[in-house]
Design brief:
The protein is an all-alpha fold. Helix content is 69%, strand content 0%.
Length: 303
């Protein structure tokens, strides 16, 4: 167990730094699309150390301070309880039989923590952000859970390690090819899970100049910045394991997760932002229908 803990700490350190660099690349891409030069790729390190050196005298309720911790716990927990590289001890983490159910809980854990934190921020518009965030995340979870149900039925398992094992032997064994409907539903749900345009209705940067980036600062911002690095990566690893055959080497894991992270970025630079009701209606129509078809496909053609 001691060896696994050491491996887990090293794995988190590697993924945090990879996430910082990838976020720098993403910010650079958005800047280039807007005909700007953009920040350096290492900008998140500058922001991190700058925030760490600041102090605050603002006092709110206890949950306000626990919100960023809950948020970071959701990201690190999601990463630690699934294998990032199949068969490699360093990135096996603490995966176990039936871990898929726990991973679904971690996906929502950070959002709930931030909702509770925002409720004690003292800002009159915090309820708007909470309502938007929980409403959209609930709508996103519907097609994603349908896709996971299709995968669990297809492979007769709730163990992520077993699901990855059954996708080995060539890319044609990936869920992407054996059940493209479930994969499509999950990829569409991923757009909302990453909260990039056109589904960035929670922060609404063009509409409400408040939210966690301005209400949380100093050391609290360090937790949010760290989560911004590891949470999207952890979600990408989960999608990679479920639908794209997992990864058997570190290089393969880095390449696959980078490509998956670019999917919401591509959509984000191509479409304007949805309104809240448009976003929720969209997830409960197109992706949900595809998710239901994915379950039907497993029942009628794969069983």
């Amino acid at each position: 167990m001691g060896e696994k803990i050491v491996y887990a700490i090293i794995a988190v350190f590697i993924m945090l730094n990879y996430g910082f660099l990838v976020n720098g690349v993403i910010r650079r891409i958005y800047a280039r699309v807007g005909r700007r030069i953009g920040v350096p790729i290492y900008q998140m390190y500058i922001d991190l150390f700058k925030s760490w050196g600041l102090r605050t005298n603002i006092r709110h309720g206890t949950m306000f301070y626990l919100g960023p911790i809950f948020r970071l716990t959701g990201g690190i927990g999601l990463f630690l309880f699934m294998p990032a590289v199949y068969g490699l001890a360093l990135f096996t983490n603490f995966s176990f039989s039936g871990d898929l159910l726990l991973l679904l809980s971690f996906q929502f854990f950070g959002t709930l923590g931030m909702a509770l934190g925002a409720s004690e921020s003292g800002h009159p518009n915090s309820a708007i952000g909470v309502t938007r965030g929980l409403a959209q995340m609930t709508a996103v979870e519907v097609p994603f859970i349908l896709a996971i149900m299709a995968v669990a039925i297809q492979y007769d398992s709730l163990s992520l390690t077993e699901i990855i094992a059954q996708q080995q032997g060539g890319f044609l064994n990936w869920t992407l090819f054996t059940n493209p409907l479930a994969t499509a539903a999950a990829l569409l749900a991923m757009l909302g899970a990453m909260m990039r345009a056109p589904f960035d209705v929670v922060l609404a940067p063009q509409e409400i100049p408040i939210g966690p980036p301005t209400e949380y600062h100093s050391n609290y911002m360090v937790f949010l910045q760290s989560n911004r690095a590891i949470f999207p990566l952890a979600k990408s690893i989960l999608f990679m394991n479920l639908f794209f055959g997992g990864a058997t080497t570190i290089v393969m894991m880095l390449v696959k997760t980078f490509i998956l992270l670019m999917w919401p970025v591509l959509v984000g630079v191509s479409f304007p932002r949805f309104r809240v009701e448009q976003s929720i209606r969209w997830f409960l129509r197109v992706p949900m229908i595809i998710g239901l078809l994915g379950i039907a496909y497993v029942h009628f053609f794969l069983k």
